[in-house]
């Protein structure tokens, strides 16, 4: 195996954001019962980056200050309260982005503790950042 073969093994690409299509307007209350019938995997998107990578086509923003990030986390918690109206069996929790580790310790703690509390997530589930 030469270096080119090794490099090819790790090449991948995200779908370009223009590949995402609009979906019909569906009421969450119509969909929610089906979501909670199965193990549910919780993903929280943190779109914040220190700089924009040339290859990245994901939904990200640069230059966000702590006040803006705090507001974003508050919005996630508010959305979590709306989802928490029915019990769910959470199988995993993933924080992605962007660069989630751009958040400071206090922000990460607020995100994790609030989401886990609001959505009644078991601390023993699989967690990734």
Automatic annotation (TrEMBL):
<dbReference type="GO" id="GO:0006779">
    <property type="term" value="P:porphyrin-containing compound biosynthetic process"/>
</dbReference>
<dbReference type="GO" id="GO:0005737">
    <property type="term" value="C:cytoplasm"/>
</dbReference>
<protein>
    <submittedName>
        <fullName>Coproporphyrinogen III oxidase family protein</fullName>
    </submittedName>
</protein>
<dbReference type="GO" id="GO:0051539">
    <property type="term" value="F:4 iron, 4 sulfur cluster binding"/>
</dbReference>
<dbReference type="InterPro" id="IPR034505">
    <property type="entry name" value="Coproporphyrinogen-III_oxidase"/>
</dbReference>
<dbReference type="InterPro" id="IPR058240">
    <property type="entry name" value="rSAM_sf"/>
</dbReference>
